[in-house]
Amino acid sequence: MQSLADITDVAHVIQLAVAPVFLLTGIGAILSVLINRLGRVVDRFRTLENLLPGASDTTRAAIKVEMKILAGRARMVHWAIGFCTSSALLVCIVIATLFVGSVTGAQMPGVIAILFIAAMLALVVGLLCFLREIALAKGSIHTVPR
């Protein structure tokens, strides 16, 4: 039978794990946005690809320019998804390490700190890739002067 101290220790670890779980929720929302953007880029690329065979030379050149921009956007979203997913995985490892440390009695604050810092760095890089993709998307908008 477990003692009250053991149950209290597990309850404390659960309290410590709540903040990273909320972080996982936020990363999940970011990943959802990124996946939707990637889907839109791929759909637009396929539409342009279908227009390419019947297009005139002038139109074909414009289509190829847009396809090149879309390929760059897709690459940035891909990197953003990779880094944000890595961040989520590292946060999961932080949570698991908290519980393993609690059960085994091992003190691993250094490991937990390094994993959490790595998770935050991966998230920052993922968000920077997302920001770059947004800049590419905005740069491809052509406005007509009034």
Structure description:
The protein is mostly helical and 146 residues long. It has one domain (4-138). It has 3 helices and no strands. Helix 1 (4-51) runs antiparallel to helix 2 and helix 2 (57-104) packs antiparallel against helix 3 (109-139).
Key features of this structure:
single chain; 146 residues
Strand content: under 5%
Order of helices and strands: HHH
Low-confidence stretches: none
Put simply, the count of helices is 3
Quick take:
With 146 residues, the protein is mostly helical. The chain has one domain. 87% of the residues lie in helices and 0% in strands.
List the helices and strands and how they pair.
Blueprint lengths: L3 H48 L5 H48 L4 H31 L7
Helix pairs in contact: 1-2, 2-3
